[in-house]
Design goal:
mainly alpha, two-stranded antiparallel ribbon, elongated, disordered N terminus, binds protoporphyrin IX containing FE
Length: 254
């Protein structure tokens, strides 16, 4: 079993870090965190590209069970479609890429579920989630939160090297235990095979079209997260942070 030794770990209250009292230390990650992170990133890109292609075939969204070109849309994305039957206001139709994109989306969905389970299983067993992602009581105090939010707003992120700051912890937990499970749940709710065996999966969301719309909004949330995630990694010291996430960190980092 892999352990977390010599990696982002056991930092004490990360508010001490914010106060600048924690010495410079490792920014490396265990092999499991690194491998699952980069496979999940590749999966995310594949799911996003294929998901966009799927959206282009019908860029109108609905709520409830039914939704067709003959029913009013909740909202539409102002782009041309790859199906001539969908009214978009444009005088032309985009090339239909639905075949490979659906195929890629569903294959990748299983891979990202497997990798996510591997990460969570390892994270629970090794204590990584408890030590490095769960914020402490001190982290959640209004003073500590105001401090870290203030630092982010002033783009002062360098120095948060020893561990994840409270805002990172809350956001990562929200992504791992909120946004990703919702993506999987709403994805399964759109699968005819799954809902014929377990109808409550779609009923609890209010219908097939609601599941699709929630899946779409969750995509927007994750895209926003990834953009801000990359920006914060850049501001916190891109080379060092990336070295930690790719190689596990070099000697001078530890
Ligand atoms: C090209 C895109 C990406 C880059 C460059 C990147 C980079 C990084 C880096 C450098 C870290 C370590 C941060 C640190 O040490 O302070 C990290 C952690 C993390 N990233 Fe990403 N990332 C990317 C995409 C993603 C995606 C797509 C997701 C999920 C949707 C994601 C979720 C996470 C999570 C949950 C962690 C914390 C992992 C842990 O310690 O358990 N990242 N990322
Ligand atoms: C980060 C992960 C994911 C992203 C960014 C993503 C994104 C998208 C997007 C943008 C669409 C198009 C929505 C539409 O117009 O219908 C879509 C459709 C879909 N996704 Fe995902 N998705 C992800 C994960 C998953 C997972 C894990 C599953 C399965 C468990 C899944 C199953 C589906 C299904 C069934 C559809 C509808 C396909 C169709 O209409 O034929 N997705 N996804």
């Amino acid at each position: 079993m892999m352990t977390d030794s010599a990696h982002i770990s056991d930092p004490g209250p990360s508010s001490a870090l914010l106060a600048g009292t924690v010495p410079r230390a490792a920014v490396g990650h265990t092999a499991t965190v690194r491998v699952t992170h980069w496979i999940a990133t590749l999966c995310f890109v594949a799911l996003l590209v294929s998901g966009i292609e799927i959206t282009i075939s019908h860029p109108r969204f609905y709520w409830g069970e039914e939704g067709t070109v003959n029913t009013p849309a909740l909202f539409s994305i102002p782009i041309p479609a790859s199906r001539s039957s969908v009214p978009t206001g444009y005088g032309y139709v985009l090339p239909d890429q639905n075949g490979w994109s659906r195929y890629l989306h569903f294959q990748t969905a299983w891979l990202v579920i497997a990798v996510g389970l591997w990460y969570v299983f390892f994270g629970l067993l090794s204590g990584h989630l408890r030590r490095n992602l769960l914020p402490s009581g001190a982290d959640l105090s209004p003073r500590a939160l105001a401090n870290v939010i203030g630092n982010h707003l002033r783009f002062k992120l360098a120095g948060d090297e020893h561990t994840y700051n409270p805002l990172q912890r809350i956001t990562y937990l929200l992504v791992v235990f909120g946004a990703f499970p919702l993506m999987i749940f709403t994805g399964l709710a759109m699968s005819p095979a799954v809902v014929s065996a377990f109808p409550f999966v779609v009923n609890v969301l209010g219908g097939h079209q609601s599941a699709r719309t929630l899946h779409f909004f969750d995509t927007l949330f994750l895209v926003l997260f990834v953009l801000l995630h990359i920006l914060t990694v850049y501001l916190a010291g891109f080379r060092k942070r990336m070295r930690g996430m790719i190689t596990g960190g070099s000697k001078e980092d530890s």
